[in-house]
């Protein structure tokens, strides 16, 4: 089945080489074998051209915050992909960069593959280093490079406007989602597919780049020689990869979803899906999550309510399902809307609304009740046990409970010299430790703390001005926190 035109675009004006030896899928963001539009499109192109299909999944060294934590999660993902592609109509080539000083990097590897490819298909990832990486390689490739959007249920380039608040995006989603629910990616794009076999990878590749030895890299000490940050430890309790994502997801569907509306905001229950690291690394797709939660209540389109932008009453499902869909389809997709439309500002303070910029300016000289530097924050060394527990959770487990994440950010804003400094610290801590960091959602969340997607609140308060105000005392009153505090007590 062909993918929708709204999900596909070419980034160079090079031709397709129909004499090439294979179609190449350069898998950089949607790192999964299922529910993946880019893989589906690559399979279709290979069938049309009657050529073998090669999937190249690289892992580079040169990205900010590269550490054992992220490398391990990604390499576990590669191991799961290697298993999933075994015996299928595809040649899978995982590559882990080891030493950029003395060996050519992964973009040279891509160029070497492309020399004999018919065309290259990749993921359309409008965040982190991906856009710059794509721009750099597009010119070097001798053949067409096309990008495919597998990020969001409603194609991220569909909307011709930028949404500055959730309820206006929600209205857009309500108006369009049904059409796109009918155009979901195939669960298994390789099912029943037969393609010519590639007898041999190009010698220009195999002579210079070794296929990753995933077993060795995942053995104790396997990452030791890589020049990445070894101080950010692997999260032993969370295995990366599509198979692990699927196991967790099934567990959530069976045991967590029914209580999502009640347990999500309670740190002691921690009743959210924990899908964000898998979504971030592309190990699971938002499409599948939406399909499965709707199926869990045997949902039918006749149940739909009015498309008026309310976060309850549209789907005609339980509150739990409605709440979950709102996070995935409104809050998550809103961040992609900003990332794709404003590459220059989605990840910085320039994306704040005018009222927030004004409020920040008005309170810039207000005396802060406490001032902390980055290392005191990083070490969870503040006076506030709730904040410290949240920071310890982030460092130890690579995640932070959603409600406490909001409080965590608000207090960093209150305890630093300026909005600029608070942003810098939040970005660094979030992206260094969180497995779901470095994502459009990271910037939706961090910049929400400073007013993005929010409205002005009154009365005006010192430091916060019109920004929404949160305190640990009110969190203690509202939330079940005892077990959480004991667990992350330090
Ligand atoms: C300061 C701050 C920083 C944040 N940084 C990140 C980040 O780096 N990466 C990240 O994915 N999310 C971030 N968030 C948003 C939110 O906290 C997480 O998405 C959520 O806690 C992930 O847990 P979950 O997968 O169990 O969520 P669930 O509640 O099970 O929700 C399912 C999915 O919906 C999406 N979602 C849920 N809540 C939000 C939200 N508030 N905004 C956008 N999407 C949402 C996520 O993709 C999530 O995986 C941040 C929020 C704040 C306030």
Automatic annotation (TrEMBL):
<dbReference type="InterPro" id="IPR014729">
    <property type="entry name" value="Rossmann-like_a/b/a_fold"/>
</dbReference>
<comment type="similarity">
    <text>Belongs to the DNA photolyase class-2 family.</text>
</comment>
<keyword id="KW-0227">DNA damage</keyword>
<dbReference type="GO" id="GO:0000719">
    <property type="term" value="P:photoreactive repair"/>
</dbReference>
<dbReference type="GO" id="GO:0003677">
    <property type="term" value="F:DNA binding"/>
</dbReference>
<dbReference type="GO" id="GO:0003904">
    <property type="term" value="F:deoxyribodipyrimidine photo-lyase activity"/>
</dbReference>
<keyword id="KW-0274">FAD</keyword>
<dbReference type="InterPro" id="IPR006050">
    <property type="entry name" value="DNA_photolyase_N"/>
</dbReference>
<protein>
    <recommendedName>
        <fullName>Deoxyribodipyrimidine photo-lyase</fullName>
        <ecNumber>4.1.99.3</ecNumber>
    </recommendedName>
</protein>
<keyword id="KW-0238">DNA-binding</keyword>
<keyword id="KW-0285">Flavoprotein</keyword>
<dbReference type="InterPro" id="IPR052219">
    <property type="entry name" value="Photolyase_Class-2"/>
</dbReference>
<dbReference type="InterPro" id="IPR036134">
    <property type="entry name" value="Crypto/Photolyase_FAD-like_sf"/>
</dbReference>
<keyword id="KW-0234">DNA repair</keyword>
<dbReference type="InterPro" id="IPR036155">
    <property type="entry name" value="Crypto/Photolyase_N_sf"/>
</dbReference>
<feature type="domain" description="Photolyase/cryptochrome alpha/beta">
    <location>
        <begin position="21"/>
        <end position="156"/>
    </location>
</feature>
<keyword id="KW-0456">Lyase</keyword>
């Amino acid at each position: 089945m062909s993918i929708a035109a709204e999900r596909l675009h070419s980034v160079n004006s090079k031709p397709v080489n129909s004499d090439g030896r294979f179609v190449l899928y350069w898998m950089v963001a949607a790192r999964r074998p299922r529910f993946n539009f880019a893989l589906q499109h690559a399979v279709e192109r290979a069938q049309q051209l009657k050529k073998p299909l090669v999937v190249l999944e690289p892992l580079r060294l040169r990205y900010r915050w590269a550490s054992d934590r992220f490398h391990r999660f990604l390499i576990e993902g590669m191991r799961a992909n290697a298993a999933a592609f075994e015996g299928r109509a595809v040649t899978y080539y995982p590559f882990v960069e080891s030493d950029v000083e003395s060996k050519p990097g992964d973009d040279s590897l891509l160029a070497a593959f492309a020399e004999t490819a018919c065309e290259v298909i990749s993921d359309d990832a409008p965040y982190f280093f991906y856009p710059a990486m794509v721009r750099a390689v597009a010119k070097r490739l001798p053949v067409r490079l096309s990008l495919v959007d597998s990020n969001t249920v409603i194609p991220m380039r569909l909307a011709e406007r930028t949404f500055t608040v959730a309820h206006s995006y929600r209205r857009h989603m309500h108006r369009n989602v049904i059409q796109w629910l009918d155009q979901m990616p195939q669960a298994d794009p390789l099912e029943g597919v037969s393609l010519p076999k590639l007898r041999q990878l190009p010698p220009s590749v195999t002579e210079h780049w070794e296929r990753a030895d995933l077993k060795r890299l995942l053995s104790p000490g396997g990452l030791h020689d890589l020049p990445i940050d070894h101080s950010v430890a692997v999260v032993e309790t969370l295995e990366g990869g599509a198979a692990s994502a699927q196991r967790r997801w099934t567990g959530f569907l069976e045991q967590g979803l029914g209580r999502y509306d009640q347990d999500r905001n309670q740190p002691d229950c921690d009743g959210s899906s924990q899908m964000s690291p898998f979504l971030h690394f592309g190990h699971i797709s938002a499409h599948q999550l939406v399909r499965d939660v709707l199926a869990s209540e045997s949902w039918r389109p006749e149940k739909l309510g009015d498309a008026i932008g309310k976060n309850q009453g549209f789907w005609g499902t339980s509150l739990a399902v409605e709440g979950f869909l709102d996070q995935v389809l409104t809050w998550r997709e809103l961040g992609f809307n900003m990332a794709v439309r404003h590459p220059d500002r989605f990840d910085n303070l320039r994306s704040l609304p005018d009222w927030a910029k004004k409020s920040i300016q008005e309170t810039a000289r207000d005396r802060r009740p406490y001032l902390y530097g980055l290392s005191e924050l990083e070490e969870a060394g503040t006076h506030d046990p709730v904040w410290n527990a949240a920071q310890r959770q982030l460092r130890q487990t690579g995640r932070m409970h959603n409600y406490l994440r909001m409080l965590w950010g608000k207090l960093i804003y209150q305890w630093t010299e300026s909005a600029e400094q608070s942003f810098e610290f939040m970005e660094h801590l979030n992206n260094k430790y969180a497995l779901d960091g470095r994502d459009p959602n990271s910037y939706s969340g961090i910049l929400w703390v400073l007013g993005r997607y929010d409205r002005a609140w009154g009365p005006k308060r010192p430091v916060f001005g019109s920004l929404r105000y949160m305190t640990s005392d009110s969190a203690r009153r509202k939330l079940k926190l005892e077990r959480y505090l004991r667990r992350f007590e330090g």
